[in-house]
């Protein structure tokens, strides 16, 4: 597994669902194990499998020239 994104739980939960809709398995890991699991601002890390990393990066971070 390779680290893909770190941010607030509210964003990482959405990212994991979005990646899975594109056929990329992703996992969330808490950065701070002492944080409240119900806090949507707690820092989480999203990991993806090494073979899927480049595809996930292109889907999420690449410039889209076809957007308005």
Describe this structure in words.
It is a single chain. This protein has 68 residues and is of the alpha+beta class. Helices cover 37% and strands 26% of the residues. The chain is built from two helices and three strands; from the N terminus they run βαββα. The chain has helices at 9-21, 50-61; strands at residues 2-8, 26-30, 43-48. A three-stranded antiparallel sheet has the order 1-3-2. The radius of gyration is 13 Å and the shape is globular. The termini are far apart. The model has no long low-confidence stretch (mean pLDDT 91).
Key descriptive features of the protein:
68 residues, alpha+beta, 2 helices, 3 strands, globular
Q: Low-confidence parts, pLDDT < 50 over ≥5 residues?
A: none
Quickly give the structural class. alpha+beta
* Tally of helical segments: 2
Largest sheet: 3 strands, antiparallel
Overall geometry comes to globular
Straight-line N-to-C gap: 34 Å
In oligomeric terms, what are we looking at? Answer: single chain
> What's the arrangement of strands in the largest beta sheet?
1-3-2
What's the average pLDDT? 91
User: What Rg do the Cα atoms give?
Assistant: 13 Å
Helix-strand pattern: EHEEH
Number of E strands: 3
Q: Bin the strand percentage.
A: 25-35%
Helix content: 25-40%
